[in-house]
């Protein structure tokens, strides 16, 4: 198990230990520059900032306030909306273990998952990844559901805007990911996260979130001003080099996921990342974007050749996602006990 020294924990005070990430302005008319910046970021680290994305700071502050309001509830209230078999609802600390090699108990954070809501008459309503959300009672948290549903809608529009730049960077048509089987009916999960401030103990294998790469297409991460996120650009290096990602107010930290790595035949990188604690409470809001459950994830024609054949077999999105959930989550029956 890795031993993080006191010097490593003090790294954020030395800016040489911060990762330098590209910053993409979604309001910029220079689309070629945005494509160039994104492509280089995805070749280098798989992480980049996105600014001027269209979601106001005032609304972002409201979402963080509402998130904190939920996590401030008594445990007995939070347990009433415990996550269900579709992973919607409240997740208690240690319910997920993203890095079983270095973690003993699991991720020391609590979360709340909110997915896409489809109409009751939609034929996909019974699909496992589209079932209804779990919501806290409105008399306890008035306006909470409405705030989260609005954020879900607005974050999806940001994700779609980023996906169009990704498409161009991969020499695809700009609307490649807009199609119905892609992001027309996505599996998009909003995950509120709360990390307690006094529990980080690497000697005991306790991390806010263990080292992992994300499952899907892209992830949008909004954070408070407390550092904690680290990335490892070369997962095969011995020893691995970890760099902090600085919070940037008003920006999303965006990273690509394993599905995009598969699509791009490993041209674009899905990078290892983790969360460490530094003695302070930390809140973040992750938005995980995957295509439709029936989407077949297979090597893009622009990313393969006779010299570079597909590295992965085709797989349906739903199959891939459910397997990754199974690999990283505590069995629900045990969790409820």
UniProtKB/TrEMBL annotation:
Q: What is the lineage of its organism?
A: Eukaryota, Viridiplantae, Streptophyta, Embryophyta, Tracheophyta
The protein's name in its UniProt record? Fe2OG dioxygenase domain-containing protein
Residue span, Fe2OG dioxygenase domain: 185-291
User: Do you know which PROSITE patterns this protein is assigned to?
Assistant: FE2OG_OXY
Gene Ontology MF: a single term: dioxygenase activity
Please name one Pfam family that this protein belongs to: DIOX_N
State the family named in the UniProt similarity comment for this chain: Belongs to the iron/ascorbate-dependent oxidoreductase family.
What's in the keyword line of the UniProt record? Iron, Metal-binding, Oxidoreductase
List, alphabetically, the InterPro entries matched. DIOX_N, IPNS-like_FE2OG_OXY, IPNS-like_sf, Oxoglu/Fe-dep_dioxygenase_dom
Matching entries from Gene3D superfamilies are given as: B-lactam Antibiotic, Isopenicillin N Synthase, Chain
Residues in a coiled coil are: none
Domain of life assignment? Eukaryota
**Which SUPFAM superfamilies does the record associate with it?**
Clavaminate synthase-like
């Amino acid at each position: 198990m890795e031993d993080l020294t006191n010097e490593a924990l003090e790294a954020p005070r030395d800016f040489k230990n911060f990762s330098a990430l590209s910053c993409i302005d979604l309001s910029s008319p220079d689309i070629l520059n945005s494509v160039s910046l994104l492509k280089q970021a995805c070749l280098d680290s798989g992480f980049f900032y996105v600014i001027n994305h269209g979601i106001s700071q005032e609304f972002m502050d409201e979402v963080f306030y509402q998130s904190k309001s939920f996590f401030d509830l008594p445990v007995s209230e939070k347990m009433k909306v415990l996550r269900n078999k579709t992973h919607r609802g409240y997740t208690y600390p240690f319910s997920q273990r993203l890095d079983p090699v270095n973690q003993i108990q699991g991720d020391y954070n609590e979360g709340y998952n909110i997915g896409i809501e489809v109409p009751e008459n939609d034929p996909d309503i019974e699909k496992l990844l589209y079932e209804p959300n779990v919501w806290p009672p409105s008399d306890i948290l008035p306006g909470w559901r409405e705030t989260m549903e609005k954020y879900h809608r607005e974050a999806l529009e940001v994700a779609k805007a980023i996906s169009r730049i990704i498409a161009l960077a991969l020499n695809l048509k700009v609307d490649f990911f807009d199609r119905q089987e892609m992001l027309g009916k996505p599996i998009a999960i909003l995950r509120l996260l709360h990390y307690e401030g006094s529990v980080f103990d690497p000697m005991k294998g306790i991390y806010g979130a263990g080292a992992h790469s994300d499952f899907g297409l892209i992830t949008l991460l909004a954070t408070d001003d407390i550092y904690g996120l680290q990335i490892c650009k070369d997962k095969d290096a011995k020893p691995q080099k970890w760099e902090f990602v600085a919070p940037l107010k008003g920006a999303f930290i965006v990273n690509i996921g394993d599905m995009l790595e598969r699509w791009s035949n490993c041209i674009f990188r899905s990078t290892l990342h983790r969360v460490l604690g530094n003695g302070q409470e930390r809140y973040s809001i992750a938005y995980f974007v995957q295509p439709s459950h029936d989407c077949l994830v297979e090597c893009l024609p622009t990313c393969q050749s006779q010299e570079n054949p597909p590295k992965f077999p085709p797989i349906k999105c739903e199959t891939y996602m459910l397997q990754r959930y199974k690999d990283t989550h505590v069995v629900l029956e045990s969790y409820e006990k």
